[in-house]
Amino acid sequence: MISSKNPIPFLKKEEWLKNSPIYNNTVICDKIYKEDFDLTNLHFHEFIEISIVISGEGFHRVLNKTMPCRSGDIYIINSGVPHGYFAKNSLHMPTVCNLLFEPSDILSGDAAATKNNRYCYGIFTENPLVAYIGLDEKNLEKIQIILSIIHREASKKQSDWQEMVSAFLTTLLILLRRQMTKKNETSISILSFHERRIVSEMLRIIAENYCDSSLTIEKIGHYVSASKSYLSRIFLKVTEEHFSDYIRKIRLNQACRLLIDTNYTNEQIASACGFKDIPTFYKNFKKYFLKTPNEYRQTGQSSQSVI
Questions:
Q1: pLDDT for residue 299
Q2: Where are the alpha helices (DSSP H) in 184-301?
Q3: CA geometry: angle 186, 34, 293, nearest 5 deg
Q4: Residues 69 and 87 sit within 8 Å (Cβ to Cβ)
Q5: Strands of 83-87's sheet in order across
Q6: CA-to-CA distance for 143 and 51, rounded, in angstroms?
Q7: Is 303 in a helix, a strand, or coil?
């Protein structure tokens, strides 16, 4: 069995929140945005993410909607929502502080009930994919102070630290909700809970099983108890991509990585990436890259991928 990095950045709760009910980090987003980016450029996760742009500017992509982002912009991203931050150019890179958590692990009562109107203290009242708040410098400083307290408590783990984190996270969410109401901010890409849940599950299944050549939309339909026609329709509605195109790109992206980073044969790579046979692999690869897998490997240009 070929072991390789998953081509889909799927952030699992068991990996990111295994040591704590909350995770905090700060990253510089240096990948330059291109208009032809598609869904395979984005990541998604099994938990809530609060992202705060603390400096710089760039773009935030949610599914197929691209928005400029700058210092003071805050996005609360629901679970299972593909998104990503990108730079305008090498001189303009947004620095983003992320707070990751699973509501049921750290919040109590209605605030943690996904089907309740008070989910995350009303931020996800209508179950949006992403909620947005634009803060001025003064209010951004207030939010950063709360974040620093949460980070300190989660890092030091002193007595009753989880209660402290829960209290300050609750404060943070309520303040953000008030800012949304005050500024009349709108949520992004509101879909039904059922549609979002089904497509999120489809993306998870693809992420974990793309290497299975027998993985089809019919097979996924068996897992989620839905028909092929229904899944095809809502996948296109939510992602603006056809299911077959998406999974083909995922497999080709992984093939590119293996061609550059390993000495595996084309047969091994085709099998590891979920292609049924070598002719199918060659045909699809040549169609997208206008060169054979061997020619691609010889160039060593790993940047030439579908994404």
A1: 84
A2: 193-209, 217-224, 228-239, 243-261, 266-272, 278-289, 293-299
A3: 135
A4: no
A5: 65-70, 57-62, 83-87
A6: 12
A7: coil
- For residue 3, the model assigns a pLDDT of 42
Report the candidate in 196, 64, 62, 198 with the shortest Cα–Cα distance to residue 131: 62
d(CA 121, CA 109): 10
Contact 239, 251 (CB under 8 A): no
Q: How many CA atoms lie within 13 A of 100 on its CB side?
A: 21
pLDDT at 113 (0 to 100): 74
- Token readout for 307 is 């994404």
Structure tokens at 47: 């938990």
The H or E element spanning position 263 is none
Q: Which residue has the tokens 């990253």?
A: 27
C-alpha dihedral sign at 259, 263, 265, 271: negative
Report the distance separating Cα 259 and Cα 265, nearest Å.
8
Q: What value, to the nearest 5°, has the Cα angle with vertex 95 and ends 91 and 99?
A: 165
Pick from 124, 13, 40, 32: nearest CA to 77: 124
What are the average pLDDT values for consecutive 10-residue runs of the chain, which has 307 residues?
57 90 94 86 92 94 88 91 92 94 86 74 76 87 93 94 94 90 62 77 90 93 92 90 92 91 93 94 93 88 49
The set of residues, in sequence order, having a beta carbon less than 8 Å from that of 7 and lying 6+ positions away, is: 40, 210, 250, 251, 253, 254, 257
Integer Cα distance of 173 and 121 in angstroms: 7
Q: Are 251 and 273 in contact (CB under 8 A)?
A: yes
- The pair of three-digit structure tokens given for residue 80, joined into one six-digit string: 């299972």
Query: Cα–Cα distances in Å, from 126 out to 31, 36, 97?
Result: 32, 30, 25
For residue 4, the model assigns a pLDDT of 47
